[in-house]
Amino acid sequence: MGKRKKTARVSEDEEMKENQSSSHHKTLYEILGVERTASQQEIKKAYYKLALRLHPDKNPGDEEAKEKFQQLQKVIEVLGDEEKRALYDQTGCVDDGDLAGDVDNLKEFFQAMHPKITEAGIEEFEANYRGSESEKKDLIDLYNKYKGKMNRLFCSMICSDPKLDSYRFKDILDETIAAGELKSTKVYEKWAKEVSKTKPPTSPLRRRQKSKKGSESEALYAIISQRQDDLDVLISDKQIWWGSICCRA
């Protein structure tokens, strides 16, 4: 009897060590290709690069890529939220059964894709995406997902910048709400009221291209270049991405 219990205990210990080892090698940080000490801005930039690669517009009809894109959004929901990230850092657990079971496969999927994303490719995608029906659909989907919490929406919305797009997104959402296709929320109404008090940007859809040679673009390119060693599995030497700092709602 005693020997059987000892054998069972050894087996349980080995299984626990194996699970811990597996979880150590497959973390949400590794999926994004960043260190555990990465800033929120670095995390969001890494998320944007992968999101661009998996976006349905880039992979029409590819159900696997669509599924991975949805899983990637769950990753940024954890690491893009300071409280959820802190809890994940402490426990190593993900409060999502679907994501927890697919972390290994998600990382392997990204590694297998490994396409070269050029600066020109990113600019072309952004030019076609911003102001498109696809962007509108993503905006409405994320509005529903976050129940009108626009700070969280901007965290997940690719090719977006609160300074450039708040007015534009507000107009789209207000129109959709007025048409009865979307339900307004108190948190959204509060955000929309604050946006209305600010001065709208001039030509927000074209402003990015005009400022491409400006200091903002150069600064972001420098940040990405410094992180190249950590992201060499995921990005090429000439990648650049724009995005706002991810804020917690």
Automatic annotation (TrEMBL):
SMART domains linked to this entry: DnaJ
Residues covered by the J domain: 27-92
CDD domains referenced in this protein's UniProt entry, alphabetically: DnaJ
Region (Disordered): 1-25
Domain of life of the source: Eukaryota
Gene3D superfamilies: DnaJ domain (1.10.287.110)
InterPro entries: AtJ6-like, DnaJ_domain, HTH_DNAJC9, J_dom_sf
The protein's name: J domain-containing protein
Natural source organism: Anisodus tanguticus
